[in-house]
Amino acid sequence: MFKALVLNQEERNTIAAVTEIDEFQLPEGNVKIDVNYSSLNYKDGLAITGKGRIVRNFPMVPGIDLAGVVSQSDDARYKAGDEVVLTGWGVGEGHWGGMAEKASLNGDWLVPMPKGLDAKKVMAIGTAGFTAMLCVQAIVDAGIKPEDGEILVTGASGGVGSVSITLLNQLGYKVAAVTGRASSNGDLLKSLGASRIVERSELEEPAKPLEKQLWAGAIDTVGSKVLAKVLAQIDYNGAVAICGLAGGFDLPTTVMPFILRNVRLQGVDSVMCPREKRIKAWEQLAELLPASFFEQATKEVSLDDAIQAAEDITNGQITGRVVIKI
């Protein structure tokens, strides 16, 4: 028997509870893992609270991230005792995830623990940090240099935003951080590397087709009218990396920024990211993130506290990253 957070559905309502389940109930997988840490992402929050249609079948163990030690493996790349990391691949949505003491997974979904990191640190990064790294790389790949101007980061208080700020600062970029909680989170965001704070309300007004050019590039986790406003304010030859839709999946914009200012809109997906690209991104994260990040932007909770934390993250009451000690 092992401990797990299990989601069930009753009359279309999601019921979350920490319980004991038998190991024979684990789904199929060629690598068995003893889980040390998971993390809480916004998507996990939607799954646990039932506020979003995330889970594809019940019962389900949520947790799109996990880090642990291989206990049994039929995959030649892994052996008992190896430390491994998983993010994405639909785990915690269609396949039992990380919020349990044990997991059974496909070896193709795993990457070795990056050198210089451990289970807690890698979950402090998690899908959010991994996605942030891919977004930052998209800005770099677009040819935008630190001397070209400020990079705007929306949803700055969240997991993707907070890691993006840290990474951009480490690479020498000036960062403007957008948040609706400037009074409570402004100091933390500046300590992570933001050069200034932008009130979210400034980006919530309807956008004109083109506005004053303010940003060399941007990383957006919000979507909808905020993204439309950002696009209208991007410099000529600028780029926007997008990875979230916390504000909605619509985009009330025009083609004007793209055809008159040569702006690039780059979508970023971390769920199905190929293995080799994953390994490279994790190596960059291990190299770039300072020790101070893990102290400033991480909160640890127990598995028993994950249900309340899920409620908090969906209500916008979480800053930075939440790691779950399994």
Automatic annotation (TrEMBL):
<dbReference type="GO" id="GO:0043957">
    <property type="term" value="F:acryloyl-CoA reductase (NADPH) activity"/>
</dbReference>
<dbReference type="InterPro" id="IPR036291">
    <property type="entry name" value="NAD(P)-bd_dom_sf"/>
</dbReference>
<feature type="domain" description="Enoyl reductase (ER)">
    <location>
        <begin position="10"/>
        <end position="324"/>
    </location>
</feature>
<dbReference type="Pfam" id="PF08240">
    <property type="entry name" value="ADH_N"/>
</dbReference>
<protein>
    <submittedName>
        <fullName>Oxidoreductase</fullName>
    </submittedName>
</protein>
<dbReference type="InterPro" id="IPR014188">
    <property type="entry name" value="Acrylyl-CoA_reductase_AcuI"/>
</dbReference>
<dbReference type="InterPro" id="IPR013149">
    <property type="entry name" value="ADH-like_C"/>
</dbReference>
<dbReference type="Pfam" id="PF00107">
    <property type="entry name" value="ADH_zinc_N"/>
</dbReference>
<dbReference type="InterPro" id="IPR013154">
    <property type="entry name" value="ADH-like_N"/>
</dbReference>
<dbReference type="InterPro" id="IPR051397">
    <property type="entry name" value="Zn-ADH-like_protein"/>
</dbReference>
<dbReference type="InterPro" id="IPR011032">
    <property type="entry name" value="GroES-like_sf"/>
</dbReference>
<dbReference type="InterPro" id="IPR020843">
    <property type="entry name" value="ER"/>
</dbReference>
